[in-house]
Amino acid sequence: MDQKRVLTELIGSLAVVYFAITQDAMVTGLVLAIFMIAMGGTILPMFTLAKMAAGRDEIEEGALDFTMQILGGVLAYALFAYETDAWGTNAWGGVEALGPVIAVGSLFGGFLLMMVYERCGGGWEVGVLAWMVMLGGASLTGAGDIGGMLVDSAWTGEHIISVFGGMVLAGIGGYVALMFGDQLLGEEE
Question: Could you identify which of 64, 90, 109, 119 might form a hypothetical disulfide with 138, taking C-beta atoms 3.0 to 4.6 angstroms apart as the criterion?
């Protein structure tokens, strides 16, 4: 087990989700950019899912990354609830139902972010684009939404479908971006 990789995913996810709780897209995007520059890693579950589906990460490594990202999201919400004494008070805002608009937004958001992640080496550009995508209403912190559901005991069927469905759709968008990049764009010069 690569301890540096495990800590990168855990701490990166915790930081991004913690700042995403404030619902401030700029802060969240900048924190993501800083962690991408300083630590690398994938940090967002949608990147991990896309890389596993494309065969760029081994299943064992990807599953460990995914687990650490989810744990980071749970810890971020637990820390927030502890600091604000908000246990069980719906600190998590919930997510919209997974309708056509959210589904297409998740697909396109995953596609765009993975294109930038892959073509720019996972640097600060990902955080800036995440900031813009979040201003458009996309939720990028699937790990945070899982953490929010756990801490607030909000495990309704609609929330589960919306969170996991949105995360999987963003991962599919990322997978399509990887395949698109490999097949049509080729190597960067």
Answer: 109
Instruction: Report the alpha-carbon angle 95-36-170, nearest 5.
Output: 35
> Residue 188 has what pLDDT?
53
96 vs 159: CA distance, rounded Å = 8
What are the structural domains, with CATH classification, of the chain?
A: 3-185 (1.20.1080.10)
State pLDDT tens for residues 163-187. Answer: 898 889 999 999 999 998 877 766 5
d(CA 20, CA 45): 15
Q: How far apart are CA 64 and CA 9, in angstroms?
A: 9
Distance separating alpha carbons of residues 148 and 76, to the nearest angstrom: 9
Cβ contact 47:174 at 8 Å: yes
Whether residue 140 contacts residue 112, with contact meaning beta carbons closer than 8 Å, is answered with no
- The 10s digit of each residue's pLDDT in 21-66 is 877 888 888 999 998 888 888 899 999 999 999 999 999 999 999 9
The encoded tokens of residue 168 equal 């999987």
The answer to whether the Cα torsion of 176, 166, 140, 16 is positive or negative is negative
Q: Where are the alpha helices (DSSP H) in the chain?
A: 3-20, 25-38, 45-53, 59-84, 100-119, 124-135, 142-151, 157-180
Is the pLDDT assigned to residue 5 strictly greater than 60?
A: yes
